[in-house]
Design goal:
about 325 residues, mainly alpha, about 0% strand
């Protein structure tokens, strides 16, 4: 019983730190570059490819595809950008957000507390907005890696508990169940980065198989679409089409990977080892390669994809 209590406490504390850290870091990055973000999105999206590059760059800066997608829906609703531009931004936003997962795949637990302390110190000594944003970035970074560290500390207790460890053995090899769990978890926490971070911990500790970890990561990409759908409620037809373009883009990509699951996983493993990385980077690379492949497939056929979106979501007469 004591072991189960420790596991529950550890898991809760780790997940809370991870989610709060990701959200705080993204919030600080977003607020510190909001004007630049909006300017880039409104100016450098002339065609689908330039919109893709802009979406990737902006999301790499703010580390929140959700924020970029919601802003994009708002821009379409206000007529600042067209649906064709918005679709390109979405392709790029999905790729740009994978940088957080790449960051989390490195072992940076040893600097988590010093960075967190530095963030708190900056927050205490300055009341200027610029420094407050910097403090949020630092505290978020520190909390994010503290959360990963706390979750890693709980792994031995999970192995010690026969009942809980048996659950991981029983369900930790099923990519389809993992996909559903990943989608639901991301819908609830509104952060694919946080759930991918948790997936990295579970896989690197050997609690789930690579196939199940891929399933969780694919599910994260579906679950993250909910926020854009909520943002599009009570907006015009093109804003709603933008939200659905995001949802269907991710969903089609996920189901395409499920059809070619074995070749996809083999590709990720091959590329990871080809560039000299070890298995601890596999899940971050799944996230990145999935979104790179999706963009590579969709960018050349964007005109047809937009026509498809307009067909399934027609204007109300």
């Amino acid at each position: 019983m004591n072991t189960i209590i420790i596991i529950l406490f550890n898991f809760t504390a780790g997940v809370i730190c991870l989610i709060c850290g990701v959200n705080m870091m993204s919030d600080g990055l977003e607020k510190s570059s909001l004007k630049l973000l909006k300017k880039l999105l409104s100016l450098f999206t002339g065609n689908v490819f330039s919109a893709f590059l802009t979406g990737a760059l902006v999301t790499a800066i703010v580390q929140s595809s959700t924020a970029v997608t919601v802003i994009t829906v708002g821009f379409v609703n206000s007529g600042l950008i067209k649906l064709s531009q918005a679709v390109g931004i979405i392709y790029g936003a999905n790729l740009g957000t994978t940088i957080t997962a790449q960051l989390m795949s490195f072992n940076m637990m040893h600097i988590a507390i010093p960075v967190l302390a530095a963030g708190i110190l900056v927050r205490l000594v300055s009341k200027k907005h610029a420094f407050i944003n910097i403090s949020h970035i630092l505290m978020g970074f520190g909390l994010m890696f503290s959360g990963i560290g706390i979750l890693n500390l709980g792994v031995p207790y999970i192995r010690e508990s026969k009942h809980i460890y048996q659950l991981f053995i029983q369900f930790g090899n099923n990519p389809y169940m993992a996909l559903v769990i990943g989608a639901i978890a991301t819908m609830l926490v509104h952060s694919s980065s946080a759930t991918v971070g948790l997936t990295i911990v579970l896989f690197n500790s050997g609690l789930i198989s690579f196939e199940a970890a891929v399933g969780l990561t694919l599910g994260d990409n579906i679950g993250t679409c909910v926020t854009a759908q909520l943002a599009s409620l009570k907006t015009n037809i093109n804003a709603r089409r933008t939200a659905w373009a995001h949802t269907l883009y991710n969903t089609i990509g996920v189901f395409s990977v499920l059809i070619f699951f074995s070749p996809f996983t083999a590709l990720v493993i091959h590329l990871t080892h080809l560039i000299g990385q070890d298995s601890s980077r596999l899940i971050a690379n799944v996230h990145t390669i999935f979104n790179m492949l999706s963009a590579a497939v969709f960018i050349p056929v964007s005109k047809h994809y937009i026509s498809f979106i307009e067909w399934i979501i027609p204007e109300r007469k």
